[in-house]
């Protein structure tokens, strides 16, 4: 057993005594930000003299890029702290350099500008975050060491002891998100044991990215308490053909209104012309993660060609059957990877579907099937 596993086994009930101690009028605020990788989160906690009524205008100093470089943390959204409870807070921050310019991994700033341009369309988003649970030794939870898991379908939404692992984590995460004020709207078991999904939304504009990133932070903190790791890897290690995505639902007021199906189909046609450009921003490595995930297997589409259909799940973008029957609603883009930056995803959707300045893919090779 590794040192990490032994540490995770320490009796965490000991801390209950300390958590129950009165803290007076002060408030502990944990500032959260996306690090230089664009995938991982960092945090630091400060003591404020009083509970903040809203976002603080003060800039907070941190470190970035692995060097002693001061950066500015700009608070953008505040939540209740589900770990040390009220009056304590979680505060999501944007990261600027010393010249007040967004650092490279700060996708939120540009996303916010685009959302301001398209606000008349009232864009709504929902995101379906899949993740896989591993123990601290890197083994899929519930599986014997050195075993190799082969994808078995159907496995969605199963309720069978011995074939599903991690429900307590899923439930605890959901409850913590609800306490915090995160707009989590559902959870379910996924295709392989130890794989789960939660959904966030609907949210308008940049709000979806804020809520998804904080939901991810809460997930990792919950997993700390359970002594496991939540992997957002689109192609989890040790899994033969199972994958993880972050399917994104998108609509405008026109799509949601009577006759909205026409607007949905028009947006899908626009998306078909920029397939390659979207794939470059649908994972943090310019498409290198998704090329291993989007193989046409495990309810995925093919990386190199755009496809669409009603109800089908092995396509790039689909129209859910209830949307088709009702004649209005939303489209579901199934291409974003589980480790995507939600700000980059929704920015691309808004630019392609709502702004007239969009350009087609350079190679022109994508076809609608």
UniProtKB/TrEMBL annotation:
GO terms for biological process: glutamine biosynthetic process. It is an enzyme of class 6 (ligase). Coiled coil: none annotated. GO terms for molecular function: ATP binding; glutamine synthetase activity. Residues 107-369 form the GS catalytic domain. Gene3D superfamilies: Glutamine synthetase, N-terminal domain (3.10.20.70), Glutamine synthetase/guanido kinase, catalytic domain (3.30.590.10). Belongs to the glutamine synthetase family. PROSITE patterns: GS_CATALYTIC. One of its GO terms (cellular component) is cytoplasm. This is Glutamine synthetase. The gene is LOC115362105. It is found in: Cytoplasm. Pfam families: Gln-synt_C (PF00120). InterPro entries: Gln_synt_N_sf, Gln_synth/guanido_kin_cat_dom, Gln_synth_cat_dom, Glutamine_Synthetase. Its EC number is 6.3.1.2. Keywords: ATP-binding, Cytoplasm, Ligase, Nucleotide-binding. It comes from the Eukaryota.
């Amino acid at each position: 057993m590794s040192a990490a596993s032994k540490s995770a086994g320490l009796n965490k009930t000991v801390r209950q005594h300390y958590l129950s101690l009165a803290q007076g009028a002060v408030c502990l605020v944990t500032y959260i930000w996306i690090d230089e990788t664009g995938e991982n989160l960092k945090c630091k906690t400060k003591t404020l003299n009083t509970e903040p009524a809203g976002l603080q205008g003060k800039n907070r100093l941190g470190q970035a890029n692995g060097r002693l470089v001061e950066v500015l943390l700009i608070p953008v959204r505040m939540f209740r702290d589900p770990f040390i409870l009220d009056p304590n807070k979680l505060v999501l921050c944007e990261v600027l350099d010393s010249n007040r310019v967004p650092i490279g991994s700060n996708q939120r700033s540009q996303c916010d500008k685009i959302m301001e341009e398209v606000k008349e369309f009232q864009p709504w988003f929902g995101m379906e975050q899949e993740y896989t649970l591993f123990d601290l030794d890197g083994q899929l939870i519930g599986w014997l060491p050195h075993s190799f898991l082969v994808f078995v379908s159907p496995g969605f939404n199963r309720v069978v002891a011995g074939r599903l692992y991690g429900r307590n984590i899923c439930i605890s995460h959901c409850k913590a998100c609800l306490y915090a004020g995160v707009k989590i709207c559902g959870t379910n078991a996924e295709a392989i044991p130890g794989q789960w999904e939660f959904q966030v939304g609907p949210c308008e504009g940049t709000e979806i990215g804020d809520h998804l990133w904080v939901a991810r932070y809460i997930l990792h903190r919950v997993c700390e308490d359970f002594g496991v790791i939540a992997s957002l890897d689109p192609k989890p290690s040790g899994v033969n053909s199972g994958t993880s995505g972050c399917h994104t639902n998108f609509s405008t007021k026109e799509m949601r209104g009577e006759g909205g199906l026409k607007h949905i189909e028009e947006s899908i046609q626009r998306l078909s012309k920029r397939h390659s450009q979207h794939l470059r921003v649908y994972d943090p490595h310019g498409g290198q993660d998704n090329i291993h995930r989007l193989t046409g297997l495990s309810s995925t589409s093919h990386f190199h060609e755009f496809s669409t259909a009603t109800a089908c799940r092995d396509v790039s973008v689909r129209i859910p059957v209830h949307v088709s029957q009702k004649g209005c609603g939303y489209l579901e883009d199934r291409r974003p990877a589980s480790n995507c930056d939600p700000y980059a995803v929704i920015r691309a959707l808004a630019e392609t579907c709502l702004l007239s300045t969009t350009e087609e893919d350079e190679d022109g090779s994508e076809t609608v099937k």
